[in-house]
Amino acid sequence: MPRPIVATTDLAAMRANLSRARAVAPGSKIWAVVKADAYGHGLQNGLKGFADADGLSLIEFDCAVRLRDLGWTRPIMMMQGMFESSDLKLIVEHRLQPVIHTAEQLEMLEAFASPIPVDVHLKINTGMNRLGFPAEQARDVWQRLSAMPSVGKVSMITHFANADQATADPDVEEQMRRFRLAIEGLPGEVSVSNSPATLLHPELRCDWIRPGVMLYGGSPGGGSAESFGLKPAMRLSSRLIAVQSLRPGDSVGYGSLFRAEHGMRIGIVACGYADGYPRHAPTGTPVVVNGRRTRLLGRVSMDMLNVDLTDLPDTGVGAEVMLWGDGLPVDEVAQAAGTIGYELMCAITPRVQRATTA
């Protein structure tokens, strides 16, 4: 029998979150971001959950090809473009749309004799300082792309560094000012809004939005996912595999990080950092056992973690444990562990059983 830990993806929640994105950005088309195996939810689940999206966006070429093999016929954006010139053959064969953000990619395109024009996205660096051409070069790059026989439509995108602030942020305003100045008078569709910009800065929405974590029911900042009308699309659950009694002064787990001040019952859960649960989650991190909230105790080990059953006297071996899901937001667990929900979603390892609900 497999270990009892299961990550369950809720397709109905994914569809509802996509609808929410469309409702808060009326008039904008949607690139649903499915990179990193659809944020750990499974690429095929991403395809099903976001079947009504206008396009899908990711960085992995093998996954883009798989999307086509699975039947996706709408646009696919490659968010980091091509990594080497041979990628252009896949781009043409599977009708992919690369983001162009370096001079090297421009040279690849210029040297490529494409049988059909390739639609591209010109990325402009307005302050994130990771990918993209400097704003002052945008017009020259656009003209260079537009003159290439191998290039079809040229769209323009940028990415915000601080859009997760609920209030007006001068950095976001400055990035948008630079972007508008860079593309002034240039034809082509525009996309700037990721999840936080979509939810928190409606004034920035353009032809397309690019939601990611919000589609999976995670908060991009500025409030809880529930406050934005989002539903959790992943439930990580397991079971108790042992129960122990602690006397005052007894410790539990590696490093004896937790020591009982009084008599206690504790439960041992089949879930550890080799399953993707954060090793650095401290005592007090919330856990739900048999529908009731309790807390993590001591250090998370490779295959197990420990929970407080002192106030759950009738709970024993086999009891269900929810690590995150409906009623225990992944963002709350992440905050307790000093990280973000994105990381927890993406960290689930292959040995965890997978399930899907419609």
Task: Please give a structural write-up.
This protein is an alpha/beta fold and 358 residues long. Helix content is 26%, strand content 26%. It is built from 11 helices and 19 strands. It has an 8-stranded parallel barrel with strand order 2-3-4-5-6-8-9-10, surrounded by 6 helices. A hairpin with a 2-residue loop joins strand 15 and strand 16. Helix 1 (11-24) crosses helix 3 and helix 10 (330-336) crosses helix 11. The longest helix is centred in the N-terminal third of the chain and has 14 residues, at 11-24. It is elongated and about 75 Å long. It starts with 5 loop residues before the first strand and ends with a strand.
Short description:
The chain has 358 residues and is an alpha/beta fold. α1 packs across α3 and α10 packs across α11.
How is the secondary structure organized here?
Layout: E1 6-10, H1 11-24, E2 29-33, H2 35-39, H3 43-49, E3 55-58, H4 61-69, E4 76-78, H5 87-93, E5 96-100, H6 103-110, E6 118-125, E7 133-134, H7 138-146, E8 151-157, H8 170-183, E9 190-193, H9 195-200, E10 208-209, E11 234-246, E12 251-252, E13 258-259, E14 264-269, E15 286-289, E16 292-297, E17 305-308, E18 320-324, H10 330-336, H11 341-347, E19 353-357
Helix pairs in contact: 1-3, 10-11
Main traits of this protein?
358 residues; alpha/beta; eight-stranded parallel β-barrel; six-stranded antiparallel barrel; 26% helix
